[in-house]
C-alpha cells in the first residue's frame, strides 16, 4: 500500500456513538468536552480548542450531524461541509483527542452519556443559560466559556467570500 493509500493516523480519533465507551476508556482524565458545528474551521476555533485541551487530560469534540445542523437555522445552505469531512478536519488537530457526533438538537444526551469533568464553549455563549451546565454540575463537573477571538466566525467568513465573488 503506497503512502497515498494509507489512511492518516488521526482517523483513529473519530468514533461513533456505539464505540464511544470503548474509546473513552483509554482517554486520560480529566475529560474536557466541547461541541459545535465547526463548518469551516477558523482561528477562533483552533485557539479555543487549544485552550480547552490545556484544561484537562483529553479534549472530546462532538460535532452536530448534518441533519442536526439543518435544524439549527444557520442557513439553508449549511453545513457547507458534511459531518464526515468536518470530523476529519477536527481530528487532524493536535489539541483534539477524540471526535464524535450527535444527531440531537443539543449535546445534552451525549454529555449525560460521557459525563465529562468540564464542558467548554467559546465566549459567544453564556454557560449559565445552558441545560448542559446543570447536567455537568450534577456530577461535580464544571462549565466554562473560553475567550471569544474577535473577528472570526464562519458566517462572517461566508459573507466576505460571497461579497468578493459577487455571488449570493
Ligand atoms: N471567534 C471565536 N472565538 C472563540 N470561540 C469561537 C469563535 N467562533 C466560534 N467559537 C466556538 O466554536 C464552537 C463552534 O462554533 P460554530 O461552529 O458555531 O462557529 P461559528 O464560527 O460561530 O459558526 P457560525 O458562524 O456558522 O455560527 C462553539 O463552541 C463556539 O462558541
Ligand atoms: O457551533 P455552535 O453553533 O456553537 O454549536 C451549537 O452549540 C449549541 C450549544 O452547545 C448550546 O447547547 C448546541 O445546542 C447546538 O447543538 C450546536 O452544537
Automatic annotation (TrEMBL):
EC number: 2.7.7.70
Reactions listed under catalytic activity: D-glycero-beta-D-manno-heptose 1-phosphate + ATP + H(+) = ADP-D-glycero-beta-D-manno-heptose + diphosphate
Domain of life: Bacteria
Gene Ontology molecular functions: ATP binding; nucleotidyltransferase activity; phosphotransferase activity, alcohol group as acceptor
Statement: the UniProt record of this protein carries the keyword ATP-binding: yes
Cytidyltransferase-like domain segment(s): 33-129
Enzyme class: transferase
GO terms classed as biological process: carbohydrate metabolic process
Keyword terms, alphabetized: ATP-binding, Carbohydrate metabolism, Nucleotide-binding, Nucleotidyltransferase, Transferase
Keyword Nucleus: no
PANTHER family, A to Z: BIFUNCTIONAL PROTEIN HLDE, FAD SYNTHASE
Name the UniProt record assigns to this protein: D-glycero-beta-D-manno-heptose 1-phosphate adenylyltransferase
Organism expressing this protein natively: Rhodoferax aquaticus
